[in-house]
Design a protein that fits this description.
The chain has one domain (about 1-214). The protein is α+β, with helices and mostly antiparallel strands and about 210 residues long. Helices cover about 20% and strands about 40% of the residues. The longest helix has 16 residues, at about 1-15. It has a 10-stranded antiparallel sheet with strand order 4-3-8-9-2-1-10-7-5-6.
């Protein structure tokens, strides 16, 4: 089956990322394989002037098949403007732009299949359980949707999780920057999204891609 062969190639690329291969080439190959099994088709919108917009894709694979898929917008939170202001005032003052992705299990009592909607007032995850650095990032041509080496107003942030990493029940995520470190609840939150629970097991790998358009 097409999905099985695509899964095997995606899995191989994810494994190679940990070996410090060329991340941009790895991401191109993963996007190509994901497109074959349905999904991960981004289209630029002309209604993004003067605003940050976010988009998220999650694809999880287990036993040679796609077992979880989620694609939707994500909410740019209020604190993102604070990070932008800091970077514009003095690029040496915050440690950096977006540097980490945080995943969480949500608050006690949440319906994990239908968690509360994300809001722009969110400043941290309800219950952060995992934090990872950006695997790679790339600029996107707003007309063609292709990865480019020149600067544009669209950036894709890529996160890869192999079978041996990132186990847990995840229902929320956020990007963090500024003074963010590997420690939970550090840095400035840029975006936030809740989603139906992804129960990550030791036999599952997954990819998260977050697009930010300015």
């Amino acid at each position: 089956m097409q999905s099985n062969s695509s899964f095997q190639r995606i899995k191989k690329v994810i494994s190679s990322v940990g070996q410090k291969t060329r991340l941009s080439e790895s991401m191109k190959r993963i996007k190509k394989e994901i497109s074959k099994i349905g999904g991960f088709v981004y289209k630029h919108s002309d209604s993004l002037e003067h605003m940050l917009k976010g988009q998220i894709t999650i694809k999880a694979f287990e036993n040679n098949r796609l077992v979880y898929s989620f694609e939707d917008h994500n909410v740019i939170v209020n604190s993102a403007s604070v990070l932008i202001s800091r970077l514009l005032k003095n690029s040496q003052e915050p440690k950096g732009g977006i540097t980490y992705l945080a995943l969480g299990e949500g608050a006690s009592g949440w319906n994990l299949q239908s968690p509360p909607e994300a809001t722009s007032s969110q400043a941290k995850l309800a219950s952060e359980t995992l934090r990872v650095p950006v695997t790679s990032s790339t600029f996107i041509d707003p007309t063609t949707g292709e990865e480019v080496s020149s600067y544009t107003n669209i950036v894709d942030y890529h996160f890869f999780f192999s079978e041996s990493s990132g186990e847990g029940a995840f229902v929320e995520l956020g990007l963090f920057g500024g003074d963010a470190t590997s420690a939970n609840e550090t840095g400035t939150m840029v975006n936030y999204r809740t989603f139906p629970v992804l129960n990550k097991t030791a036999s599952m790998s997954f990819v998260i891609i977050v697009r930010i358009t300015a």
